[in-house]
Amino acid sequence: SGFDVYLDLPLSPAEAAAGCQLDVPTVRGGVGVRVPAGVHTGQQIRLRGQGLDGGPVRGHQILCVQVQLSTELSQEHIEVLRKMDEETCFNPRSGLWPTEQEEAGQSAAES
Fold first, then answer.
1. Per-residue H/E/C for 78-111
2. What is the mean pLDDT of residues 56-83?
3. What is the pTM of this model?
4. Which of 73, 96, 104, 105 could cross-link to 77 by cystine, CB 3.0-4.6 Å?
5. Whole-angstrom distance, CA of residue 8 vs CA of residue 66
6. How far is CA 110 from CA 57, 102, 105, in A?
7. Sequence-ordered list of residues with C-beta below 8 angstroms from that of 57, at least 6 positions apart, any chain
8. CB atoms within 10 A of CB 2
9. pLDDT tier at 53 (50, 70, 90 boundaries)?
10. Which of 24, 25, 27 is nearest to 3 (CA)?
11. What pLDDT, on a 0 to 100 scale, did the predictor assign at position 66?
């Protein structure tokens, strides 16, 4: 609604992966929020009734998740992240466009 308030919510990768409890500011003061495990950048968390007053209607506060990396990662930190991706077979672009392997398999099937 026109009475909703949006707030970026920066999280570390560990906070986003494991979930956490945070205090966040609202127009009425700070409130506690439980961030669920597995959230990702762009996901929204709604705090009902924590937006602006609009007469008979009160808006919500919308937290816009922003997962952020430290700017001071060592080579060891980066290797840990790479290893995690490999062990979990994580590909953030999966399903967005065909991989080289999928294209090769499709070409072979068409022959």
1. HHHHHHHHHHHCCCCCCCCCCCHHHHHHHHHHHC
2. 95
3. 0.80
4. 73
5. 7
6. 59, 12, 9
7. 1, 3
8. 8
9. very high
10. 27
11. 98
* C-alpha–C-alpha distance, residues 100 and 86, integer Å: 18
Both tokens of 9, joined, read 């919510």
pLDDT digits (tens, 9 = 90+) for 27-44: 999 999 999 999 999 999
Cβ atoms of 26 and 47 within 8 Å: the answer is: yes
3-state class of 2 per DSSP? coil
* Residue 40 DSSP SS3: coil
Q: Are strands 61-67 and 5-11 parallel, antiparallel or unpaired?
A: parallel
